[in-house]
């Protein structure tokens, strides 16, 4: 069983990999999603991350598809809800005026998510993106109400820059409001600058849990995309194409070398590198097949030597 890590000062404890629920109801149908969730939790992992907006980008979807699949899985019983640290997000456009972090919308969005998820509480409720049109104290005050009501246990931030995250933390401290206990940044072996330039220091200074998304760079770090021909017909082709340059080639070569030394996969090595970074709590990974998931869940057991970490650092610098 994986060793649990504290998530900020929230009192929540999570295994070192989170399951990204963006695939539920999109590239994984309900039946497949149920099997993946069973396998994930049976292996001792517990943090499942979704969002109200998943998967609104798909033709014919309105958002909420992922939460509904997860709620249907909870409804199967056998203690499924108790096995999960449930994380979801709000704030991205959901149609009409449903977006942002105003107190009115925070209250509306949480109730909608609770209905879709078929639960009475969200363990980690995250602002999906900053809302500069709403004062931080108003948003944090609304979150405080949800915590008092028992609808939410802890709050987190996603896609905040370092200055706004620091400002939010200072606002919480000044007004005695709940603080963001987690940060969900875009961070992986191929995307380092945005997080390392400023956010990492704020997270370490304040003891915030960090749960990076796109931990495998939309699949690029698995090594299965090495040319534009490999992208044909792939759902994430547009996201991966930007990595197919000289730097991307260096990164894949370094992953190949380290993976060969361990009899591991490139994905396992990329995740082991990320899990071992200072301050990282649990990278978020997705899977659409049991084989893919089972390989991913071996990553926390992989121990990289200092020279291997140095090789990966240099290739991705």
Fill in the keyword field for this structure.
alpha/beta, TIM Barrel, eight-stranded parallel beta sheet, two-stranded antiparallel sheet, 11 helices, globular, oxidoreductase, Aldo/keto reductase, NADP_OxRdtase_dom
Please tell me about this protein's structure:
- The protein has helices at 30-42, 65-74, 103-117, 136-148, 162-175, 193-206, 237-240, 246-262, 266-275, 290-296, 306-316; strands at 5-6, 13-14, 18-20, 47-49, 85-90, 122-127, 152-158, 180-184, 209-210, 284-285.
- Helix 1 crosses helix 2 (65-74), helix 3 (103-117) crosses helix 4 and helix 8 packs across helix 9.
- The two termini are 33 Å apart.
- By secondary structure, it is α/β, with parallel strands linked by helices.
- The strands form 2 sheets. An 8-stranded parallel beta sheet has the order 9-8-7-6-5-4-3-10, with helices on one face. A two-stranded antiparallel ribbon has the order 1-2.
Question: Would you kindly provide a brief summary of this structure?
Answer:
The protein has helices at 30-42, 65-74, 103-117, 136-148, 162-175, 193-206, 237-240, 246-262, 266-275, 290-296, 306-316, and strands at 5-6, 13-14, 18-20, 47-49, 85-90, 122-127, 152-158, 180-184, 209-210, 284-285. With 317 residues, the protein is α/β, with parallel strands linked by helices. The protein has an eight-stranded parallel β-sheet with strand order 9-8-7-6-5-4-3-10, covered by helices on one side.
